[in-house]
Amino acid sequence: MYKLLKKTGKVRRGQFITPHGVIETPVFMNVGTLAAIKGAVSSEDLEKIGCQVELSNTYHLSLRPGDEVVRKLGGLHKFMNWNKPILTDSGGFQVFSLANIRQIKEEGVYFNSHIDGRKIFMGPEESMRIQSNLGSTIAMAFDECVKNPSPREYVMKSVERTTRWLVRCKNEMDRLNSLEDTINKKQMLFGINQGGVYDDIRIEHAKEITKMNLDGYAIGGLAVGETHEEMYRVIDSVVPYLPQDKPIYLMGVGLPSNILEAVSRGVDFFDCVLPARNGRHAHVFTKYGKINLNNAKYELDDSPIDEGCDCPTCRRYTRAYIRHLFKAKEMLAMRLCVLHNLYFYNKLMKDIRDAIDGDYFEEFKEEKLRLWDGRA
What we know:
Elements lengths: L1 E7 L2 E8 L2 E5 L1 E5 L11 H6 L5 E4 H6 L3 H6 L3 H5 L5 E4 L2 H7 L3 E4 L2 E5 L6 E4 L1 H11 L3 E3 L11 H26 L10 E6 L5 H12 L5 E4 L8 H11 L9 E3 L5 H8 L5 E3 L2 H7 L2 E4 L2 E4 L19 H5 L2 H9 L3 H27 L3 H12 L4
Parallel strand pairs: 4-5, 4-14, 5-6, 6-10, 10-11, 11-12, 12-13, 13-14
Antiparallel strand pairs: 1-2, 2-3, 7-8, 8-9, 15-16
Protein name: Queuine tRNA-ribosyltransferase
GO molecular function, one term: glycosyltransferase activity
Cofactor: Zn(2+)
């Protein structure tokens, strides 16, 4: 259940009540594709850095270790020792982004595993069964994510099929949740709005999926080739047509500036691999923007990554030491930077919530953008 606590213009401050706890929104979900954050970050670490929601991947976990294995071990929460909410994406994006050879048909998608090449079929029912085996808090509907730009005629047909798939997802989830041996009988389902960069297709699709009264709604198919301006235009167009009494999730986005812009347009949920991926390559976020610790100028820099940051890394380690770890190819380098970046994102979301509560979000947004743009 989504509880709207405050709304100023389009900006929303809420709480999403789930079987695994209350999520304060706006929120950034920390991406642990294979039930772990890349960079040697544990579930205990996630608790310490303020993570509210962990996100895992249906497709990848179905291959390794296998969703049946996770089910036998008590579900994803028990498997990874995480008792807060977990969202699993449907596997749709990975099917379309990783599979070199695929056939999209009405029943689902035929493709080859990116690991060993074996033939796999995944459709709406299969995705729901895998996610039910994982026992996540929130399951995402199986959809097709098209690249931007794509021909209008293809996008129309793809969206119509995605709508039909959503009906099948809902029916299968209702069936699975009614079974005696289902791990999470209160598993929630989010539908996904698609339509490329065509505003009218997006709006019609939003109207159609709203009728299904799902637990939440995502905007998918963005940050896949379009400009930031096009992305913001699509968000502006579609958000008013999604249910305002349900959480709205912008999938796969993104940069801190993207998050601020999307919050100002009414978005509640975010996820992205960017903070962890950047951290593993020595790119870290600070109040003045992103820096690369591999640069020679940090060789003798005995300051923390970000002055005033209270993350476990900044409390104890210097830029010079972390740079040394990267040059020496020590795993600790990645861990320290991933911890910092995820803390930065989780703290940013808390600061956003505080700014909305305190009626100074617009000033907060402008100041952050000014600092990150180097205009300070």
